[in-house]
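Curious: can you check?
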Amino acid sequence: MAARLSSGENRLVSLPLSRIRVIMKSSPEVSSINQDALFLTAKATELFVQYLATYSYKHGRGKEKNALTYSDLSHTAEECETFQFLADILPKKILASKYLKMLEKEKRDGEVGEDEEDEEDENETVDEDVGSQDQRRIAS
């Protein structure tokens, strides 16, 4: 196979095989890596990145600007079902001020939600007490 040709490897794959080997060996289940498996993983990764970039360019604003941007990639990861597993890796960028506002809003909503739950628990207890008093009056 082509992976055995050490001088030709660099021309067939753009990604550095040594880095891919390090990433693959970082998995505790992997003890040794076959050269063919290393080459095929590199080539598959290269093709995947190419497909992601092409898809993002075609379905994003890349055609308008004649450039591929991070927002195109993050939009693809969020909107396209095929790439949704990348949503955590390619999140949409937001300003820090907007993020802080979102956190404050969530905190306020969380506090309000907890207060409402407490009120509901108190109301249920009151309703039960009133119901038992009504039953006593009827029995008397």
Summary: The radius of gyration is 29 Å. Confidence is low (pLDDT under 50) at residues 1-5, 124-130, 132-140. The CA atoms of residues 49 and 55 lie 10 Å apart.
